[in-house]
User: Fold these one by one.
Assistant:
Number 1:
Amino acid sequence: MHKQFHYLILGLFICVILSFGTGEIGAQFITPVKKEAPEPPPAAPPTPPQEPTKEQTKETPPVEEQTDYVSPMKGNLPGEYFKNFQITNKQKKAIQENKNLWFADRFRVGFGLRPKVDSLYNTDFDRSTSDNRNTVSNQTQFYLVGDVSPNITFKMTFQDVRLWGGEIVTGSSDQKLGVISNVGTTIDTTRQREFAMNNYTGFREAFLDLKTTNQMFRVRTGRQILDFGDGRILGARNDSLNGNSFDAVRTTLTVQKQSLDIFGAIVSSENNANSMVSNNSTRLGGPGNASYYGVHYGIKPWEWLGIEVYNFTLYKQKLKATNTTPYGSDIYYRDPDQLNTTGFRLTNRTKGNALPKETGIDWMVEAAWQTGFTGERVSPDWINQNGALKTNRVTGEPPPHSDPVRYKANIVAAQLGYTPVKEFRIGIQYVQASGDPNRNDSSAATYNPLFATRRMAGGAIPFAGNGNSGMVFWQNIKDYSVHIKFESSKWGTFIINPHWYYKTKLQDGYYENNNYVAGSKATGETASTEDFYNTEAYNPNRPKLGKHVATEVNLIYIITPFENVSFWFGASSLYAGDAIRNQKNNPYETDPYRRYDFKPNASFFTFQSVFAI
């Protein structure tokens, strides 16, 4: 019994402990009387269905999702993105407003095709030479514009330019002719370690734009076209099939009606790099290291006045002496070649260089000066008076026995046009580019056009209107010209453009659009009277120096029958003046069969079709 009592006490102790651990057991332990649960209330009758209220029927507007970026250029492509074309205004408008060639709302593709036929006759005004030329060439372009965000835009233009029948082929067999493409060439590496190869196809443009969202500041890097004003100083040069383009970095700052451009370009490289051979190495006859850089500022204080000031510099590195260079050669004393072109331009054509209004007066004035040093040293003028050392221009002696050769050249251009009705315009132009009366002294006074547009170019009005033939250009020249244009929406554009060319300095020659003195390439003589040393002007056995170079009349017809296709016809007739006649008809010529070789008439015909989308 005592043992059972202990077990009973132990069981009661365990029950007490459990009563504190669980409420249910504890409650049952404390309250042994069990309460009955209340009966559930009766179920409510079912509620009949009710019609939704107007507030409930209104659909909740969906949450707008963030849309992808759509380029603002779509249907409004800026003109700077198709500066690679020579096209009419109608074609420009079609390219600018085209939306079908955009994809993903950010990318624009395009294509251009430009076959061209040229025919030239008697370009040296010499009856003893046969220099008639007929050529067919072609330009093909593909381009891609990508405006991927408000801050990033790029463009790539792939261009192929070739002369029909001008392909390089291997071997001497006439069976190949020029009909097999990409046949290659054989290179003899035992004669020369480096060989420069021509490349007809490449990127005309390949640049990246990094810009602020408000478009005030932009940095453009890569291969690009630099073009300012009328292209008279620096232009795209689309009048040629190749055109200009630079490997450059360019920054642009735009604030309201002001713009500032600063650029730097490498135009020639001396050294090879990364398995690439430089064609411009001095070892291959090239200029070596050269760069082109500049600044351009433009402001439009009023709608009728645009002001531009600029400075562009071409810098060529000093040539270096080698172990094989004879001591005392002029190369030891040659300095870098630095040509600065500084100028300004004023005009009332402030809306994309177009006419200010459908009718009225348009005008332009531009002037530029070239300064700097050529890097050469010559005998001082006080020693070399009257060209006494004409056979030894470079002395190869250090100062004070030699002088540095300075650039002292300039150009001035003025235009005035009147449009009485929107279909008709008449304009006049005067351009004077300096010449050098003595190319043996310590000044280089012949204006150098460098990267300017050469021939008449453009659709509606060729503002940089030089002669269309390219036989005479703005070096040592006074150019008086008239520009008459009639433009019909149905029949196209008709242009009559006569030029009268005169020498600025009688002693200097006249220059073609490739920067060399014009003349017969077969004989090496010049086509115009000139006096290199300024000593033969009064020599009775020398031809009399002439002033009038030539008269050129250009007839141009441009029509755009479809918005993407234009046809261009050009005919130029030239008649040589006394500056050429006195050289060709020289009774003092030692060869009696060459005394009267003058043939005054020359001509140039061209036709091209331009397709661009």
Number 2:
Amino acid sequence: MTPPPARRRRTGTNGAAPAHNLPRRGAVRRAQAITTYGVGSLIAVDHESFIVSGLDEAEQSWSRDESPRIHERRLARLLDIDYFRLPPASDDTSRDGLRVRRFPLMHSCPECNDLQRHRDFNPPAGRSVCGTCEVDLVPSRFVVACEAGHLGEFPYWQWVHRSKDRGGSPTAQCGGKLKLRTSGHTSSLRSILVSCTCGQAPEVSMEGSFRRNALKDLGLKCRGARPWLGASAPLQECGLLLRTLQRGSSAVWQPVLKSALSIPPWSDGRADPLAEHWDALREYDERDHVEIYLKGVFKGKCPVPLDEVMALLEAEREEDPDGEAAPTFDHRYRALRNKEYERLRAGNDESEHNRDEQFVCETPLGDQSVLDPLGVTGPMLVKRLREVRALKAFTRLVDAESTTDSKEMPLSEHPLRWLPAMEVRGEGVFLRLDEDRLDAWERAPAVAARIERMRTAHQRVLEERAEDPSRVTPSPATPRMVLLHTLAHVLINEWSLEAGYPAASLRERLYAADDMAGVLVYTATSDSAGSLGGLVAQGEPEILDRTVRSAVHRAEWCSSDPLCVETEASGTGGSNLAACHACVMLPETSCEHNNILLDRALLVGTPDDPDLGFFAKLLTR
């Protein structure tokens, strides 16, 4: 049952609603608390709307039983924290749950058409209905946000009382009551009408409210509201341009997710008891000093042998990126991927470890030479893996894939030594492309020209979304990256058809750089879909040979051809070429890059240039 809202009392300088647990009828899975309904996001439950509270409250409300700690040292070090915590599951068996606040506070009554704050309707305790009409209240469809991550109520009063000339802006309240109604003539914003009973301003529609400068013309700028942190959070100095958004728009909240695979020597869990002490241990170079520290902390009973501690410290120092005294976050994240790539290539036999080992990667027994005509090499059977995905921050109006730290909104007002995360245990198949053949293909002028079109379009999108285009992260589009990305998509589609895996239960992990050319396809869900060896069996050379050939032949034709293969631009801002939902696009849970930077022509060629494709020799035209 929904807790009673605040009635006839002020809730703070920024009008934030009090926090309470998410209603039981709005259950949220643990994975959704990271990817869909994380801190600062909006949740629609029946006819009500809530915003997920910050981690400051989670620190006090999440119980250790329902929100246990999990460890992944490499990722924790990258994010400068000590550990992670699983979000509590919001279901009927949970005593805990996500803390939420009602947002937006502005509601309308479809019966009397009043438009005002929720508490001003005097709803009965535990219900969201008009106290006079006794009909369900409707949360405001519109909110405002800025690129710094702040979120606020749409300024209905200023919109109604705006001056006839664009430069004017209202400054004083009129004493009237706002009304909202729909004319029903069309489904556009023109049919949503807002008025005021003061009679000083005519009834206006919401048409034009989504213009980039619509609120700037009213003299409004962002005041730095953070309703997910509650009334005690002070307003931040901001002043950025405010944009009007639909409450359910994906631009309202995008998670900044960072992930890592558990690889040796951290994958057996033996180092977990030392999780909160690594920063201190790294200050010591001498074995004797490390021993003295451990004896002092654990009173002579360290759970990890000293030799293993020294080996772990050495392994950690090896992951430090070379060439920079103070490496950037992106550089360190690439170094983390590099180590995963090296370990996937080298393998980790199950026979050499105990049952607690979380990373088992072995060479298939079949003859790998059958893959040589494909340009595929080095397949590995990842029989056991563990991935930790952490919610680092979130963005609004800015693409989370290419954001900078200045555009990321932290999850708490005060720095915390942990972040919410989920862990996935499953299996996968890793493969690489032949470097010599790949280098020759990348140097082809037609390939370079095609990639340059995609890169230019993607870079333009990034710059249009940024306040300062000169500081935008360069687009990651390269021939190698787009080829591996598209190959991963067609493999996932093929395995979903041939091996019985739902496409949404598989996920890609790309290793595309000057010194990397690999892709890992693995089970992406936290349930049992595809975790009993079925995916690993697809990595045997004979089966993989048939799979790649079938996937390439299937990608040769799309039901949207010739429009799809001959398109000059598709996808967000033209960042795709020959790619659509009928051929290579995947569910959002499966793709690392939100279904952009895809082009199946790089796999199979085009009718005008069949040799453009990396796998063109496999096709008979």
